[in-house]
Amino acid sequence: MRNLVRTLATGSAVLALTLAVAGCGGGDTVGDAAGDKGGKGGDKAAGGAISVDTAQGKVSLKKAATKVVALEWTYTEELVALGVTPAGNADNKGYGTWVTAEGAALPQGVTDVGNRNEPSLEKIRALQPDLIVVDNERSAANLKQLQDIAPVLAFTYTTKPQLDTMKKNFGELAKAVGKTNEATAVTGRIDAAAAGLKSRLEKAGKGGLTYAVGQGFTANGTSSVRMLTDDAIAPQVLNLAGLKNGWTGKGDAWGMTTVGVEGLTATAKDATFLYVAAANDNPFTGTFAKNPVWKGLGFVKGQKVQPLDPGTWLFGGPLSALQILDETGKALKV
Asked: Could you tell me the maximum CA-CA distance found in the chain, to the nearest angstrom?
């Protein structure tokens, strides 16, 4: 599954449905501020350095970074949420297409440093960054080379529970750029938005509603759905609003269960089905639409199929979490 996600990230039609998430963490120190290679983050904390927890251990910065290159969209989104314009980002076009939450738009002047799997080290070096932020797994092949350019923060996304991990990583990144107060304010908006949605649902007689959420896509001519379990961040966000996930299939490391149309029969019969699909690759309005299995599903017969904005980033940062809540409120008409 991990390889499928990475592979699909290079496709045009299926790009909307790939999950640009972080990988698993290790326990070694990545690197320290320029000119202080090899030191441990904790060694300099007493002298005023900023000590940042990462998937590779502690990283020490002599001062808050101001020129940051992000090689994973989640962390680009988080920088923008903090009011920090990245010096460089991997795949500006892809980011602009699929990370569409309010306030997450990439500012003008951000240098595109290539794709996320194979960024241009030359372009990154030319920017002379004082910090590089990466996905721990995706950066494994070129981590040492990146460290030769600037201190590197490598974060893992899928550590359970993913919502708490996202908030923790966001806070650590905020610490590195001197924006901890801003991070607290942004993450506080998630809880406030969830509470607001919960209140509106209860007033509308929809409190505790059962849902299922999935991403539809086509690969190698086959239409499939990635159903999200409670181990995935999107259901964890929705559950804050008192909603109940009606998908209990076994998930992979990302909290996803990939199924065909027949697999959707395992969805709770009373569930409202929320989905994300690209406009030019939507199995739910395309190949599934005339399928008798699809037509026989409880949420189809009950007219409880609700699309979310195709650019809803189900594995993103805090602004994407807010978008998930907002889109769900619109879909449920509250």
From this structure: 68
